[in-house]
């Protein structure tokens, strides 16, 4: 009997030791581990699989000019979230910058279907810009006008005026001067419908109207009207109510000089304009080309391609620069 109790006690101690060992193993396996050198942390892996994080990373790559890499990430985001408005919008922008306009519009079409009410104008404008990249001005105008109509329906006269002003620019740079004048005038009249319009805003829209008329006159070869309207812009700027608009004056004078074939004068003025604006740069490059300084022109065409803005200005600048550089 004593022998049996001794055997039972030994068996219990053995089972207890084995149970403690198993418990220790389970506890160790459950503890969080520190990643080794070069190994991504678990949170980073989770973030990388998150569609919103992928879109954020893709946008950064697109802004840096890495459209192929950006599109790969946008694609991964859409695999995880096929109905992501932001992913479709971002992919469309990257496609336009890469020159794949048909594919861009597929993404913008989907973005329009998915857009919440407060995102519709962004998607409509993106589609308008995409058609401008492709020089399809008739369709570009359709989408810009939809933005204008939506803003007018809401009595948002400031937003409607901005849309009309943008549409005027699209028509002007496509060579349709009559429609350009019509929409610039619409922008001015719409802006003035705002109740209690501050004096600074009235000066701004007076400048914008004169700025547009000066450019249209220059495109038509009417130097007198171009100079008169430029003088109106200068007089409003001298009031000091819109100091942030000062950079627009050398652009205006350079634009007028360029189309009146004073290329040396255009270069002098455009060099003082906004050097981050691809449209300013495309005019400057063309002016250098006109005076026979092709190396300088090519250098500036290269600078145009550094812009990743999805705007009408870039839509009229980037394709030309790519064609000149044959890239």
What can you tell me about this protein's structure?
- It is built from 17 helices and no strands.
- With 327 residues, it is mostly helical.
- Among the domains are: 49-114, Tetratricopeptide repeat domain (Serine Threonine Protein Phosphatase 5, Tetratricopeptide repeat); 135-194, Serine Threonine Protein Phosphatase 5, Tetratricopeptide repeat.
- It is globular.
- 39% of the residues are buried.
Q: What topology emerges from the helices and strands here?
A:
Elements: H1 2-30, H2 42-49, H3 51-63, H4 67-80, H5 85-98, H6 101-114, H7 120-133, H8 137-153, H9 157-173, H10 177-191, H11 199-219, H12 223-237, H13 248-259, H14 263-270, H15 278-290, H16 294-304, H17 312-325
Helix pairs in contact: 3-4, 3-5, 4-5, 5-6, 5-7, 6-7, 7-8, 7-17, 8-9, 9-10, 10-11, 11-12, 11-13, 12-13, 13-14, 13-15, 14-15, 15-16, 15-17, 16-17
């Amino acid at each position: 009997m004593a022998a049996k109790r001794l055997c039972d006690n030994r068996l219990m101690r053995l089972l207890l030791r084995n149970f403690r060992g198993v418990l220790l193993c389970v506890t160790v396996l459950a503890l969080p581990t520190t990643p080794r050198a070069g190994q991504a942390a678990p949170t980073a892996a989770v973030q990388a699989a998150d569609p919103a994080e992928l879109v954020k990373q893709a946008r950064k790559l697109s802004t840096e000019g890495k459209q192929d890499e950006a599109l790969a990430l946008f694609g991964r985001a859409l695999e995880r979230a096929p109905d992501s408005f932001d992913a479709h919008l971002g992919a469309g922008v990257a496609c336009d910058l890469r020159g794949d306009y048909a594919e861009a519009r597929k993404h913008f079409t989907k973005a329009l279907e998915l857009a919440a009410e407060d995102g519709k104008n962004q998607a409509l404008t993106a589609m308008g810009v995409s058609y401008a990249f492709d020089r399809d001005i008739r369709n570009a105008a359709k989408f810009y006008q939809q933005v204008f109509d939506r803003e007018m329906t809401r009595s948002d006269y400031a937003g409607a005026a901005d849309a009309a002003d943008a549409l005027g620019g699209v028509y002007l740079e496509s060579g349709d001067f009559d429609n350009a004048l019509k929409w610039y005038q619409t922008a001015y009249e719409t802006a003035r419908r705002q109740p209690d319009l501050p004096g600074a805003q009235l000066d701004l829209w007076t400048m914008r109207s004169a700025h547009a008329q000066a450019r249209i006159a220059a495109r038509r070869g009417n130097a007198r009207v171009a100079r008169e309207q430029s003088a109106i812009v200068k007089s409003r700027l001298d009031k000091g109510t819109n100091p942030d608009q000062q950079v627009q004056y050398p652009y205006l004078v350079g634009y007028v000089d360029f189309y009146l074939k004073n290329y040396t004068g255009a270069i002098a003025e455009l060099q003082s304009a906004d050097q981050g604006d691809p449209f300013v740069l495309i005019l400057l490059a063309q002016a250098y080309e006109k005076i026979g300084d092709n190396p300088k022109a090519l250098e500036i065409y290269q600078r145009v391609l550094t812009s990743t803005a999805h705007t009408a200005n870039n839509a009229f600048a980037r394709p030309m620069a790519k064609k000149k550089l044959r890239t």
